[in-house]
Amino acid sequence: MQKTDVLVIGGSAAGIVAATTGKSFYPDKNFLLLRLEEEVLVPCGIPYIFGSLGSSEKNLIPDATLTKLGIKLKIDEAVSIDQEKKICKTSDGTEIEFDKLVLATGSIPSIPKWLIGTDMENVFTIPKDKNYLDGLLTQIKKCNRVVIIGGGFIGVEIADELNKVIKNVTLVEVLPHILQLAFDDELAIRAEEILKERGVQIITNNGVKEIQGKGKVSRVLLNNGDTIETDVVILSTGYHPNSALAEKSGIEINELGFIKVNEYMHTTNKDIFAIGDCAEKHSFITSSLKGLMLASTACSEARIVGMNLFGLSTLRSFKGTISIFCTAIGDTGFGVAGVTETLANQRGFNVITGTFEGIDKHPGTLEGTKKQLVKLIVTHEDGIIIGGEVIGGLSTGELTNLIGLAIENQMTVNALLTSQIGTHPLLTGPPTAYPVIKAAEMVVKQRRKEML
Fold first, then answer.
1. Does the N-terminal or the C-terminal CB of the chain have fewer CB atoms within 10 Å?
2. 325-451: what fold?
3. Which residues lie closer than 8 Å to 115 by C-beta, 6 or more apart?
4. Is the full-model pTM beyond 0.90?
5. pLDDT, tens digit (0-9, with 9 covering 90-100), for 140-192
6. Is the four-CA dihedral 30, 34, 39, 45 of positive or negative sign?
7. Residue 452: is its pLDDT beyond 70?
8. 40-71 burial: b if 16+ Cβ within 10 Å, else e
9. Helices H, strands E: what count in the chain?
10. Direct distance between the N- and C-terminal alpha carbons of the chain, in angstroms, rounded to an integer
11. Domain 2-108+240-307 falls under CATH 3.50.50.60
12. Rounded to 5 degrees, what angle do the CA atoms 341, 346, 350 make?
């Protein structure tokens, strides 16, 4: 029998942050992290092993991140959890007795059940599995044609990266535009145009009906009857929570398949927590259940758990996901936080929007200056910022984070408009026309007009 104070199951972002934060706040406690993988990939870096990095070896999280803090590591699979006895059994027969348990079992790629031919050779998904992805990379290097099914963030990023090394890359999306679930149409269209300009062939408003070939994929059949010849198909059709162990162990699961948790990430058992892709999510804006899976959200949840393992040492609880994303296509960044205008209207919010396009350096004659567009979504009655979208240079990610902080702290557009900002010619837009402040100004002017 092996004993530990805290057992963390799952070794990706959520598990690592829960273990390291927990050890920092409770240095006298013993921590053991149990994971399946011999080596752990940086999850958000996975698309870049196919182009910019060229190898999974350049996208690894070192075990020293854990071991240098005194956190023990075991490579094995958890097969059962006895909640009453507080014992986890692993596939090699080991029994681990714990006081607190953190489930960070992540997610698994979803394969559409209706799609014929997904079991053929050279049809791949994108799991967080180094050995599997190394196999995909080996096949990619032998081929000239790739079809990616799914135009969300991962599909777009992989398409852009593969376009650097493959002659013929086609991205197929059933919706009218790529990234349409994340951005309003005008921004999604801009992303689509840039990806096309970079050489990726994009087919939208048309799904894949069947993957065809004789044992090995040779083409895909689209819903409209067209076919695309290909050597490899990559399914980027979403993920589902890896909650089977929890469900088997009697831990409550919600209707979407996620482990049920409260605002402190407790499951229905006060000594068992769940975080990351396997854990239940609610919208910060509407409180509705969400199927969102993001490393940034996972790490936020993990820090809350790490700080509160043995009592509520902090009153900071997880109040819901603000759905904050960012990506880059070449040297153009795209970011979004909170609700889009489209989603706000669908949810019944009465909103005002303001859009401003400026520049990300000043003066605009500086080398590398890019246009920077900011769109803010604000509630009509009280002026609270509930969403924002950004297109610009590679500083877009940090500007998106700024908007995310404004949303999470329920900042008003008037407060944002009068905020003090630090600017520098090489680092930001001009203080006279800082895009996010100017977008706020557009909203305030519109609100004033409507009040007159």
1. C
2. Enolase-like; domain 1 (3.30.390)
3. 208, 209, 210, 211
4. yes
5. 999 999 999 999 999 999 999 999 999 899 999 999 999 999 999 999 999 99
6. negative
7. no
8. bbbbbebbbbbbebbebeebebebeebeeeeb
9. 11, 26
10. 74
11. yes
12. 65
